[in-house]
Structures are given as C-alpha cells and as structure tokens.
Amino acid sequence: MALLEIENLHRRFGGLHAVNDVSFAVQAGQIKAVIGPNGAGKTTLFNLVSGALVPSSGVVRFQGREIQGRRPFEIAARGMARTYQNIKMFTGMTALENVMVGCHLQGRAGFLASMLHAPWIWEEELEIRNKSMELLELLEIADYAHIEATSLAFGQQRAVELARALAMQPALLLLDEPAAGLNIYETAEVGRLISKIRDMGITVLLVEHDMSLVMDISDEIVVLCFGEKIAEDLPLAIQQNPDVIRIYLGE
Amino acid sequence: MKRFIVLLPLLAVVVLVQLLSTWTGTQFYLTQMTMAAYYSLLIIGLCVLMGYAGQISLGHAGFFAIGGYLSAALTTHNLVAFKGVAVVRLLEGCALLQAGKDLYGGELLVVTPWAAAILAVLVAAAVAVVIGIPVLKLKGHYLAMATLGFGIIIYRLALASAWLGEADGISGVPPFVLLPGLVVRGDSAGRVQNYYIAWGVLLVGLFLLLNLIGSRVGRALRSIHGSEEAADAMGVNCARFKLQTFVLSAVFAAIAGVLLTHFNGGIGPSEAGVMKSVRYVAIVAVGGMAHLWGALIMGVLLNFLSLRGVFGTYDDAVFGFILIVIMLFAPNGILSLLASRKKRKANPQKIAANQER
What we know:
Number of helices of chain B: 16
CATH architecture of the largest domain in chain A: 3-Layer(aba) Sandwich
Number of strands of chain A: 10
CATH topology of chain B: ABC transporter involved in vitamin B12 uptake, BtuC
Largest interface: A-B, 36 and 29 residues
Strand order of the largest sheet of chain A: 6-7-8-3-9-10
Helix content of chain A: 25-40%
Shape of chain A: globular
Oligomer: heterodimer
CATH class of chain B: Mainly Alpha
C-alpha cells in the first residue's frame, strides 16, 4: 500500500481547471518530485493534499485513509507536514519558538493545566525545548535560536521552516520549492539535507524548479502541465521523454 | 518558583500603597485603587485575546455587564411572592437562597451572592461560546464590527429591561461574603480589606495568564497571530484555541463585573456602554497589545485617573483620543517607546546598521 495515493483529483477555480484528473502514488521511503512550468498547478496540488484547499472531486488517501476535505490541522495530526514556497514564519517569535510550535501535537497541555502550571507540564516543556534545539543543531542554525525568526536571512528562515516541519515527526513531508531563492551551493546543501531526511525514515514529496536538484535526489518524478499529468517516471526517463522536452523547451 | 518571584515586586508595591495611604491619612484613594484593580482584571483578559490570539473584541463591556447585572438582579429581586413555586422551593432547599429584611422591614428572599456569581459567570461563558463560534470566523474589521454589535445589544437590553432596572440600573446589591470574614462591600470600614481582595484577585488572574502565555497554549496562540495558515498546518486547531481564549477573557470580564458590582452596591447601563469597550481596547493598546504587564500597569493607572475624575466630563473623549494617538505614534504601546530609546542608546551602530539593511 502506498503512503499517499491521489486518484482522479480535480480542482476548479471558476473557469480555470487548476488540477485536472491527476492520479499518482507516493511509496513510503521515496523522494518524489512534482515538476512543471509556472501555473502547472503544483502548489494547488500541495494545497489539496495538505487540506488548505478542498478538491472539487477526487480522492486523496494518506496511510490508507481518505483525507480529502479534512481540515489542515486534522491532516497534520495524521502525520503530514509541509513547508511553503513563500516562507511563512510565525512573526514575533524566535527561531526556537517557531520550531517548538512544530511540536504542538506532541504536547498535551491545555488551558487549565497551562494556567495552573501543573508539574507534568514542566517535563513536557523541557522535552519539547530540547528536541527543538536538537533540530536547530541538525540544521546548523542553533546559534540563531533566540533571534526573532523573521529577522533572519532568507536561507536561515528556510532552515527554520524545515526544522519546524521535522519537529512534527511526520510520515510524509511536503516541500514546496525548498531551493527557491538559494544559490547553487545552498541548493546542493538542501539536496543533501533532503536525502538525510529520507534516511531518517520520512517520505518526501517536493515541488521544485531546480532541475539539477530534482534529477539528483528524486526516485520518481511527476510532470504537470496546465493542471494535467503529462508523465510519471524515473528521472532519466523523464529527461528523455519527448512530451516533457516539448513543454520545457518548446516545439 | 520563578513564576511566583516575578509577582513579588508588584505585591510589594500593593502593600506599600496601602501602608502609605494609611500613614498619610489618604485611605480614600484605596477605593479607586480597588475599582481600578477590577477593571484591570478585565483588561488583562482582553490583552490575551487581542495581543496573543490576535482577535479584537469591542464587546467586552457586554461580558462585564452580564456578570454584573446578573449577580445584581439575582441578589436583589425579592422571591417571597414566588415562595410557592417548585423551583424556588428547590433553590431554597439547596441553600441557594438567603432570607432577610428589606428597607421597610418586609420579608426578603434572594439568591445568595455565591450562587448568583457562579451563575452569572457561567452565563457569560455560555454567551461567549454562542457568540464566539460564528463571530470568530471573521477577521479584522469585520470581527470588530460584529463584537461591537454584540456590545450594543447588551447595552440596549440593559436599558430596555425593567428586570435590569432600565436607565436607573440596579442598586442595593448586598455585600458578597467570599469566606467568613472576607466580604466584598463598599463601605469605608471594609476599605483596606477590599483593596486586598481586589488586588489578590488581580494578582491571581495575572499569575494564571502569565503561566498561560508562557506555555504550549500561549505558543499556539502566538502562532495563530503570526500565521494562521502555518499554525493550521502544524496541527493547531485555530478555531478552538480562538474560541477558548474568547471564553476565557469573557470569564475574566464577568468575574470583574460580579465583584465590582458587589463592591459598588449596584450597576448601571453605562457599564455596558460601547465607550467602555472602546476604553478597554484603548488601554490594551496603550499597554502594548502583547504585553500583560503593560496592560496591567496602564489599566490601573488610566482607570485610577479616570475614577478620580482627572479627565472631568471629557472622560470618554480622552480615551478615544488616547486610542488615536497610540495607533499613530506608538502602535506597540507606550512601553515600547521607552524600550526602543533604551536600545538606541545601548547600541547605536547596530541600530544604524539594521536601518541601512
């Protein structure tokens, strides 16, 4: 059974058919990439999978259960994490606090327990703090732990966002253009990092424009164009696929 | 332990103020300090809603009024005439009613202050749930308008209802015996005790809220404020957290309303007025939105000045003016001006470098 199965997924915005009958599956332990020209519907697809958008029709099955139409926080609770193309940091919070929010689902303290500061909360807080710090160390940004996240450099913010997603201990991680705005060295670094994440047992589905990165790390690639799936294959086969070459280079 | 220690300086100031006022023979100030403490209880609750969860409410005077009016009505309306009714007999059997004599020596049967207070706070919480579920789906201006509408409804209900005393409000509210020997009442003999009751309640409220914002829930609230979409994707149930915070702040407002009404011996419709809600929002803004201590300090200071009549007949106008000036010149609150000046002094190069970037 695949970890994530997408079947005949549709999403219309008025007259625009942003995602048109897309089906594919992501196997556990894979790194799978979704590529396509601007406006191909890649981010819309991510939003449909993560629950930010509701599909017009079709099925999204995650760990064997249908999740289409569920709210994002419910889908997150089932083990899916994501990052954003345009980074969404929590303004007014430090890098460490941002990552600690990622541990939200592992905590249990509610309003009453928090207000009374029940003793068992202390342990939970300490655990969350230590774990978040470890993730910042893993991504080599521990030095910036106590700096407000939005005042960090772009690349560092990306790292905080990734740490925040990893803090959720997801089964599936959706990465929306993880290398956007990074130079070639940073991009290579991100590539190594994604492979490392997969080795941690986390399945990765990513949208990316940087072809060298995609070809380097992906096990399989899905190509979208104008909302439709054009091809799905191994990286080498995709590079030689005439349809793919046509949409990227023109006739 | 650290959590208690931060409250010690405040506790010291509270005691010092009382000692000074007794020593200098100016104990009458304590009456306004007591009232200011109760208003500040509402304000720190509103601060968590506005500053941390990022949701505005222009209807909090409404929750204050629900608490105050309900406990006033229940503890003053005579139930002697209904003595035969089963419900009244049941209440009496559960010791929720107390007998007494009215002004003319007639028989008086009213709900006990404790029962009335608990019911009033529960009703305020229930109203907050019913109002909050639909209204908290709105954002920004729309949320402000909707809560304003709620505030106006409560105000007009207070004015229109004979049970709530119409324009006169309700007077003759009895003292509230919290514990034997601990009585919320407004006469000069109970002045010092009531000052400590009010500040005790406020300190406990502050302690609870400081714990809250420093916890997992506080982080979740701030994340909603920072980016609701991302918070949602982290598994934060935004709608539920917003609603819970709304209810919590309504409960704080209602408790303030109950206690202040017993202290004042009555409540009038101006307490439910829209200008009161605007005042509370203005004070939270002056304090710096996401700043519980700022809200507390400004809540006590401005309410004290207002209650002493420093602003005269321009009271409401002054608070409107304060709101405009703060929004224009210090959107992060008065204390932020001091903080940024200090920072500039401490490290001018770094600030300049930041500005160049």
